[in-house]
Amino acid sequence: MNNHVTVLEIDGNALKHNLNYFKQKLQPKTKILAVVKAFGYGSDGVQIAQFLKDKVDYFAVAYTNEGISLREAGIKTPILVLHPQIPNLPSIIEYRLEPNLYNFKIFNAFLKLADKILLMNYSVHIKFNTGLNRLGFWHTDIPKIISSLKETNHIKVASLFSHLAASEDLEEQDFTVNQINNFAYIAQQFYKHLGYEPMLHILNTSGVVNYSKAQFDMVRVGIGLYGFGNDEKETSQLKNTHNLKSIISQIHLIQPGETVGYNRAFVAKRPTKSATIPIGHADGLSRKLGNRKGYVLINNQKAEIIGNVCMDMIMVDVTKINCREGDEVIIFNTQEMILHNADVSETISYEILTSISQRVSKILKK
Ligand SMILES: *Cc1c(COP(=O)(O)O)cnc(C)c1O
User: Fold this and answer.
1) Do the beta carbons of residue 156 and residue 124 sit within 8 Å?
2) Which residues have a catalytic role annotated?
3) pLDDT digit string (tens) for 247-297?
4) CB 168 within 8 A of CB 125
């Protein structure tokens, strides 16, 4: 049992609200894949999946062991593994996970294994590179893929998919539309020559926001479920799901000239009351938030971080705040606070969420 008092509360109602927000942007028949990789964007992939399992059609994880955790927790929903490796393929089959096959190396390895153990119509997903240049076959690979597929009934293509490089950026609209058109062309080739019609999907969260016409059969929503849209307007329609809380461990009264924390980075100019909180950079709070760049909320008031962020602790200025040891501390509980931390840390909401470390307890509140 993790008795670290710093806790991430995952707001189930907010998750449901966000899912419904995206559903109402889509055709009723469009399927929804919930992306729960990286521990559900820094929360708890298993608890999120248990909560969403009857509300979505698919889950996706990045790595095989993330999918295994979901299966071990009893999740029966189809799970797409976005980034498997050849040595993972036997476990993928053992746990009935569905691999993304993104190049001939892994495609042929899976086919060989499927033939050897006589799988029947095992669901796989084939990814095409349409411009992100990260993972995926090129369109010139299509004839070879189709001829291999026609020779086997051990695997069946559940879906063809691709991923957009700049779906959030309307200045890259031409590029994105070109990716979508290339994908549609690839799908057409398959539909013409394969003999059956796999599902198609290309949109992530900001894809749904900006290019909902390209929803095809399914969309893959990640960050949107966790409260962040494409821009301020979208984000304001969503609810924050990640509420990070702690308590005050100790309060000190510091005299002018005394210092707080490592490297004596904070020097008191006047009598100062500081509160020590058990969360540090090892819990995912960036050192960039030190020295009054970041703040927390104590009894609804802003308390700035003073001195450097330590591995396990921060000290905050509570000179003007009426508070006691043991009082609750909100590290963040709004999108605004998360975006502030992202801004100060020179990063994006995704990284603030996924940085929340495994040391922090996670609890989903329905
Ligand atoms: C992570 C990921 C997503 C989810 O993206 P969001 O922007 O968080 O919605 C979708 N598809 C793929 C291939 C991904 O890797």
Assistant:
1) yes
2) 37, 262
3) 999 999 999 999 999 999 999 999 999 999 999 999 999 999 999 999 999
4) no
* Shortest-distance atom of ligand 1 to CA 204: 9
Secondary structure E strands in the chain: 7-11, 31-35, 58-61, 79-81, 98-101, 122-127, 155-161, 199-201, 218-221, 242-247, 250-254, 259-260, 266-267, 272-277, 295-298, 301-306, 314-317, 328-332, 361-365
Q: Answer yes or no: are the C-beta atoms of 105 and 116 closer than 8 Å.
A: no
pLDDT, tens digit (0-9, with 9 covering 90-100), for 154-164: 999 999 999 99
Work out which ligand 1 atom sits closest to the CA atom of 37. 1
pLDDT at 1 > cutoff 60: no
Cβ pair 166, 125 in contact under 8 A = no
Task: Give the mutation target among 18, 35, 134, 208 for probing the ligand 1 site: most ligand atoms within 8 A of CB.
Answer: 35
The letter for the amino acid at 182 is: N
Domain annotation for the chain: domains and CATH numbers: 12-230 (3.20.20.10), 242-365 (2.40.37.10)
Cα 273 to its chain centre, rounded Å, is 37
1, two tokens: 């049992």
Tell me the C-alpha distance between 287 and 232, whole Å: 26
Q: Are 81 and 64 in contact (CB under 8 A)?
A: yes
> What's the CA-to-centroid distance between 75 and ligand 1, angstroms?
20
pTM, entire model: 0.97
Contact 285, 277 (CB under 8 A): no
